[in-house]
Amino acid sequence: MIKGFRGTSLVDYPGKISAVIFFGGCNFRCPFCYNVDLVLPERLKDIPEIGIDEVLAEIQKRKGFISGVVITGGEPTLHPRLLRSLMERIKAEVSLPIKLDTNGSKPEVIKSLLKENLVNFIAIDFKAAPERYPELRGNFAQIEETLSVIAGHVPFEIRITAVPYFISHNELEKLAPFMEGAERVAIQRFMNEYEKLNPEIDLGAYSPEELKSLKVFLEGKVNVPVVLRNV
Ligand code: SF4
Fold first, then answer.
1. How far is the C-alpha of 2 from the C-alpha of 44, rounded, in Å?
2. Which pLDDT score, from 0 to 100, does residue 195 have?
3. Closest residue CA from atom 6 of ligand 1
4. How would you label 195-213 residue by residue, b for 16+ Cβ within 10 Å and e otherwise?
5. What is the CA(131)–ligand 1 centre distance, in A?
6. What CATH number corresponds to the domain at position 150?
7. What parts of the chain have a pLDDT lower than 50?
């Protein structure tokens, strides 16, 4: 279900001005998630649904100045039929490149979208060390499978929100072997000032210097460009 639309964004599709479409619902429960309204069913039900026709009409209006469309969430791959229809119509009616943001938990959905050439770029999140994915209600084996599906088929970036409770040098070392093939790894500053899914855990926040130290450390472990975001 589509639950949100932003007409113009300068930051969601690297190198492009984009429109952003938000899907509701998520199978993960990351304590640091600040899209609480899009994740918790009891909140989600109060957000009106937006139809594909309406979304396409809004994109059409902006076609002159946007150069891409981002589909994000929540987790868009939980709605494979709607996602496919939306992507097919974007391709057919406005012919814009599509970036998909995903937690990587649905490799079979991504595989079928790639088969139909519906996705131009993927951002996949690495949220914690593999053995800690169950704390997010995830399973890193699915992320690994998604990586094997996308590597060599579509450009992708790995995004890491640097939440101290989950990500330190030690965790980056464990995740580094899974980063090869990415166009870049983006370490994003975790802003600890918003309402989060689990306010009871002390998640912490890194200083700009600490984030630079994580970046330098990771650069020593991978052959992929590492960038910092929102620092
Ligand atoms: S995967 Fe994303 S949307 Fe889902 S709970 Fe985690 S941070 Fe929130």
1. 11
2. 82
3. 30
4. ebbeeeeebbebeeeebee
5. 18
6. 3.20.20.70
7. none
